[in-house]
Amino acid sequence: MTSAIDFYFDFASPDGYFASTCIDDIASRNGRGVAWHPILLDIVYKVNGAGAPVQHPVKTAYLRHDVARTARFLGIDYKRPTHFPIPTQAAERAVLWVQDHHGGDLSAEFARSIFRALYVEDVNIGDPAELVRLGEALDIDGEALSAGMHSVAAKDHLKAEIDLAIARGVFGSPFVIVDGEPFWGFDRLAQVEVCLKHSKI
């Protein structure tokens, strides 16, 4: 049985959002599934001794322009969030709770809806009430989701995902691993597809 590709992301990453719009299609075209892995970039950056782009004003200004340009170039819906930077741990724990209680397909759909809420609808996904609203739109029990995203189990699951990601060499978002081959960045997804077709580049 062919293994799923691993897709590591943080909702705080616009490039992670771009990747979320196409990663499943890329995998499906090549007979694969996708394992969605939410992580917290702030922790990854601290472990790796790297700083977030927001700490570098020149880089931040460039990336703000580049993200909007990339969206226009590729025809991806995008509106620069007013709620940014934004804490994402509740959203990521919510996705993992859904994954644990409802499976990977629904948790991936939920993750895509969170990405779209932030980068298209300008929703404050740092607000747990907004996450509950998004979950309920997918027929997820809101009360259970609210409790679940704050549970010790969800917090432990997110910590385990981050620890495993760091152990596997993940240092950014999006980060895709195909049969042990790592790819960092939205602009590497074309190479991901070639790798899926031919096993290596």
Overview of the molecule:
56% of the residues lie in helices and 9% in strands. A hairpin with a 2-residue loop joins strand 3 (175-178) and strand 4. The protein has a four-stranded mixed sheet with strand order 2-1-3-4, sandwiched between helices. The mean pLDDT is 93. The radius of gyration is 16 Å and the shape is globular. The protein contains ten helices and four strands. Helix 5 packs antiparallel against helix 6 (104-119), helix 5 (89-102) crosses helix 9 (152-167) and helix 7 crosses helix 8. With 201 residues, the protein is an alpha+beta fold.
* Low confidence ranges: none
Which class of secondary structure composition applies to the elements? alpha+beta
The percentage helix is: 55-70%
Number of distinct helices: 10
Radius of gyration over C-alpha positions, nearest whole angstrom: 16 Å
**How does the overall form come out from the CA principal axes?**
globular
Q: End-to-end span in angstroms? A: 22 Å
In N-to-C order, the SSE pattern is EHHEHHHHHHHEEH
> What amount of the residues lies in strands?
5-15%
Number of strands: 4
